[in-house]
Structures are given as C-alpha cells and as structure tokens.
Design goal:
Layout (H helix, E strand, L loop, with lengths): L5 E6 L1 H19 L5 E7 L3 H9 L5 E13 L2 E10 L9 E9 L3 H11 L5 E9 L12 E5 L5 E2 L15 E4 L6
Parallel strand pairs: 2-3, 2-5, 5-6, 6-7
Antiparallel strand pairs: 1-9, 3-4, 8-9
Helix pairs in contact: 1-2
Bound molecules: inosinic acid (IMP).
C-alpha cells in the first residue's frame, strides 16, 4: 500500500510468521496438561495476532474477546480504562492467556490483569506481540513477547492510527507528519 504515512518497516511479514510459530510451540508446550486454555483476545488490535497464534496451538483451546478503551490522547494512554465489551465466558478456575497487540506504558494491561485476576482464574498469563520497554510506567512484563521495539508509534498487522492501517501485513512506523 502506497501511503506517505507508512514509514520504516520494523517487523516484516515473514518475521511475524516465524516468531508466531515459535510462540505457538512454546505456549502449547507450557499449557500441555492445563487444557483447554482460554485465549482472551483484546480487540481490536490483537485481531490478526490472535487468529494466527491460535492456529499454531497444538493444544485444546477456546477463545473469547474483550474490548477496552483507554482514556487519553490518541497516542498516550491514561491508565483509566473502560470495558466496552466484556467476556462471555466465566473464567473462574480457568487457565487464561490474554493476547494483546502491544504493551506501551503498560497501564491498560495492568488494569486488565487486575480486573481478570479478581475473577479467580486458575492461571493468568499475557502474550503480547510487541512491547516498548522504554515507555513502561508500571512494572509488568508479559510472560510471552513477540518483539521488543523502540519508542515509535507503529501501525499494521492489527495496529491502527485513527482506525486505519490495521490491514498492513507488516508492522511499520507511522511517519511523524501523520500523527495528530
Ligand atoms: P498502554 O496502556 O500505554 O500500554 O497502551 C496500550 C494500548 O495503546 C495498546 O493496546 C494499543 O491499542 C495502543 N497503542 C500503544 N502503542 C501503540 C502503537 O505504537 N501503535 C498503535 N497502538 C498503540
């Protein structure tokens, strides 16, 4: 797609594929004997990551979704989170794996983890495709991480800027001239 807002590609499609293969193998091994694992996809950014990861999991699994909105500016989260769509499933005594697109400040995930932990799951872990360690405001490291990236605003493979660019098959930097 030709668009001046699309900058440097940080993670190519084949790198995504390869890393998600590895994550799938690792997660399936870790959850063997603790099935079925309930994958909780965080909408909308985790859309492609969740569907690609789930197809690589060679263990019984189920899927559910949450949608959250973080109050704040377009590119800065505030830590105050509103649940737009809650889970259909009851997660008490379930093995839950939250699948996130990106951990930036960590505030959204911190809220989500606290909220889900209060429901009494048997286990609760997080798998994030991307993480920006330089931006972290809270101590929180996902159990599984796809790629560590620098402090840049990225788009593609589910990640958006004002709802666009989710369909890019790679992860690219959003050109600063396109940021509002
Ligand atoms: P946090 O609360 O600051 O960790 O922000 C997490 C949420 O902000 C993610 O789930 C994304 O929806 C969004 N976000 C953070 N960084 C980026 C980015 O570089 N591109 C697109 N969305 C982002």
């Amino acid at each position: 797609m030709r668009d001046p807002a699309i900058g440097e590609i940080l993670v190519q499609a084949d790198e995504l594929n390869h890393r998600i293969d590895q994550l799938g193998t690792e997660i399936a091994r870790d959850y063997a004997g603790r099935e079925p694992v309930l994958l909780v996809g965080v909408l909308k950014g985790a859309l492609f990551f969740l569907s690609d990861l789930m197809r690589r999991l060679d263990v019984p699994c189920e899927v559910d979704f949450m949608a959250v909105a973080s109050y704040g500016s377009a590119t800065q989260s505030s830590g105050v989170v509103r649940i737009l769509k809650d889970l259909d499933a009851v997660i008490e005594d379930r093995h839950v794996l939250v699948v996130e697109d990106i951990v930036d400040s960590g505030l959204t995930l911190q809220y989500l983890v606290r909220n889900l932990r209060a429901r009494g799951p048997a286990s609760l872990e997080v798998c994030a495709l991307l993480t920006k360690p330089a931006r972290r405001q809270v101590e929180l490291e996902p159990r599984y991480v796809g790629f560590e990236i620098p402090d840049r605003f990225v788009i593609g493979y589910g990640l958006d800027h004002q709802e666009r660019y989710r369909n890019l098959p790679y992860v690219a930097v959003l050109q600063s001239s396109a940021r509002t």
